[in-house]
Amino acid sequence: xxxxxxxxxxxxxxxxxxxxxxxxxxxxxxxxxxxxxxxxxxxxxxxxxxxxxxxxxxxxxxxxxxxxxxxxxxxxxxxxxxxxxxxxxxxxxxxxxxxxxxxxxxxxxxxxxxxxxxxxxxxxxx
Length: 126
Known about the structure:
Blueprint: E1 2-7, E2 11-13, E3 18-26, E4 33-39, E5 46-51, E6 58-60, E7 68-73, E8 78-83, E9 92-99, E10 115-116, E11 120-125
Parallel strand pairs: 2-11
Antiparallel strand pairs: 1-3, 3-8, 4-5, 4-9, 5-6, 7-8, 9-10, 9-11
């Protein structure tokens, strides 16, 4: 089992920045792919970014490309999401996800991940 805990979400003005963290514990050595998803009220959970075990293979949703940066520190068992130039439409609950399987461009569906955090709220005011 792997436990994931997100932190860093808060209220920020449009144009501002935030860094989210996802701390993993448990059988972290088994984790290959990690990702960030987000969900707004009334909408389906959507893919934000994914990173491979070694951090070399990284994928972003078009909506965040160029503004968000995903990274992971395997020594600290923590994944990050640096979010810059935030927009009101980025408002959502952000979830981190992990799985033992290695995805190369195919890890954009929530069903691809077995481990999930509880989410952290990001609110961007206009």
